[in-house]
Specification:
Number of strands: 10
Order of helices and strands: EEEHEHHEHEEHEEEH
Shape: globular
Strand order of the largest sheet: 1-2-4-3-5-6-7-8
Number of helices: 6
Radius of gyration: 16 Å
Structural class: alpha/beta
Helix content: 25-40%
Length: 238
């Protein structure tokens, strides 16, 4: 198996967005997965994670939600500026999420009738908002995500959802986690939340090392959440 990485540039409102396709180009169309990155935008770590899923038999689109060249680093004082702009306009975010889903379904390496989404941190919120928009994804997985709903009514949620959560996450404290469970229950969603004790935010991110802010990599939670995700995807598509 040879996994290829190919940039895909599309236009949204006249602005270029640069995604990355990660897939076995020689295989028949496979279930397609959107990968929504964290607050920093698309980067090599996201492509590497997509590569692991491509080896399991999926075709990935690593999604650029900010625009070509719009990336940040943790060292910057305003590293969240692009994320904050989208969080301030959830309708624009919703539209970009659905545009990315349409791009995924149009790929030759993707079975358009079998799609899902995964996301990390801000990307976890993106998974939830895509499901809240009524998108016809089979399911979604949020890793250490953000749970507040958009300021407008949800569409009917048809996607199954897995939420992998660090119980000590300061960005999504217990009240927010219970609130998400209540929201999804009222929506009739097929949902599950896996909460990892003694675990904070960014537990899948090996570069995260800010324990004073509740951000730290957890090898155990990373391993357990990856296994939970693979089991979930197998249930969706096998």
């Amino acid at each position: 198996m040879t996994i290829l990485r190919e940039p895909l540039v599309n236009q949204i409102d006249g602005e270029p967005f640069e995604h990355m396709v990660v897939a076995d180009a020689k295989a028949d169309p496979r279930p397609g997965i959107l990968l929504f990155p964290n607050v920093l935008g698309t980067k090599e770590a996201d492509v590497a994670y997509a590569h692991k899923l491509a080896e399991l038999g999926y075709s990935l689109l690593v999604v650029d939600l900010y625009g070509q060249g719009k990336r940040t680093s943790r060292a910057e004082p305003d590293a969240a500026r692009y994320m904050n702009a989208l969080r301030a306009d959830r309708a624009v975010l919703r539209d970009r999420l659905n545009a990315a889903h349409m791009e995924l379904k149009g790929l030759d390496v993707v079975d358009a009738g079998r799609t899902a989404a995964i996301g990390f941190c801000f990307g976890g919120l993106c998974v939830l908002d895509l499901a809240r928009s009524g998108a016809d994804i089979a399911g979604g997985v949020s890793f250490h995500g953000v749970y507040d709903p958009p300021p407008f009514p949800n569409a009917a949620i048809s996607a199954k959802l897995l939420v992998c959560h660090g119980w000590d996450d300061p960005i999504a404290p217990p009240d927010a986690t219970v609130g998400l469970a209540r929201e999804l229950t009222e929506a009739g969603c097929d949902w599950q939340i896996h909460a990892y004790g003694q675990t904070g935010h960014a537990f899948t991110d090996e570069s995260a090392n800010m324990p004073d802010k509740g951000l730290a990599y957890s090898p155990a939670a990373d391993r357990r959440s990856f296994q939970a995700m693979t089991n979930f995807l197998s249930e969706l598509f096998d």
